[in-house]
Amino acid sequence: THSWDREAIQLVQTLIPKETVLFIADAKISFDSFRNGMTASVNSKTIITVNPGKISQRHLHKHSLSYNLDSITDVYTVSQVKQKTQENPEVFFGITYGFISKLDLDSSVSKVIKTRCSRCKFQVTEDKQSCTNLLCPGRDQALASSTGFDLLVDITDHTGTLHSCALRSPVAEQTLGCTVKEFTSLTDDERTAMKWKFLLERCKIHVKVLQLLVLCRVGLILACSVADPGEVKQHMSALLQRL
Ligand SMILES: [Zn+2]
Question: Which residues cross the membrane (predicted)?
């Protein structure tokens, strides 16, 4: 599976049903006798345009950029992240010092841990024979799935809130300091305690942000740990000086 496929599927997954129009050019269309319908598959030449006419296509070619955590050094406030994504609809990486203001670790386990197709990362149920995603590059094959943390969290600082940023495995394991298996054996009280450990602390959060259209911003957390207070002070005073 090319990383592009995974990115494309993740992109499609995050779109808002019924509110988003997709224009897909150069996809391979074929008749699938098993599903008795037409299917589309994507490759590196495929261009998916979200709400055609509203945004540039440039980001689609850029958003598969690989990253290295050490190379991410630019620090932004939440409002600067929002401003940057609106001005420049391309993927970018940055660090924000904020609080995790929404972290539903104490809701049902099915909301915290999800099973996804290993090929396209689409959410599936393990009882299925094959992936149910029409764009999956491995739809014809037996389902290969993996189960991991899959959370949407909010990041808040003094300038605002970034809603629904994805915190997934393996970053979530590192952040929470616990494996999926360990998490499933925690009591409700232990899960609540884990949640509050983050809600009360300012964290250093590495993010990858992609603006798909005016109302749809996709944030992916690449790393998150409780921030060193001295480091926070240093960056906060630098941010204030720039104002
Ligand atoms: Zn799939």
Answer: none
Tens digits of residue pLDDT in 103-150: 999 888 888 999 989 888 888 887 888 898 888 888 888 999 989 999
In the numeric block, which tokens belong to residue 239?
């941010």
The residues facing 94 across adjacent strands are 207
Question: If you measure from the C-alpha of residue 85 to the centroid of ligand 1, how many angstroms do you get, rounded to a whole number?
Answer: 29
Does 14 have pLDDT greater than 70? no
Q: What is the mean pLDDT of residues 58-79?
A: 67
Dihedral Cα 143, 179, 157, 161, nearest 10 deg? 30
pLDDT value of residue 44: 52
pLDDT over 70 (residue 71): yes
What does the alpha-carbon distance between residue 191 and residue 203 come to, in Å, rounded to a whole number? 19
User: Greatest CA span in the chain, whole angstroms?
Assistant: 63
Domains of the chain: 68-242 (2.40.50.140)
- What is the whole-number distance in angstroms between the Cα of residue 126 and the centre of ligand 1? 12
**Ligand 1 (ion): which residues have CB within 5 A?**
117, 119-120, 122, 131, 133, 136
Distance 7 CA to ligand 1 centre (A): 12
Secondary structure of residue 210 in the 3-state scheme: strand
The pLDDT score that the predictor gives to residue 82 is: 87
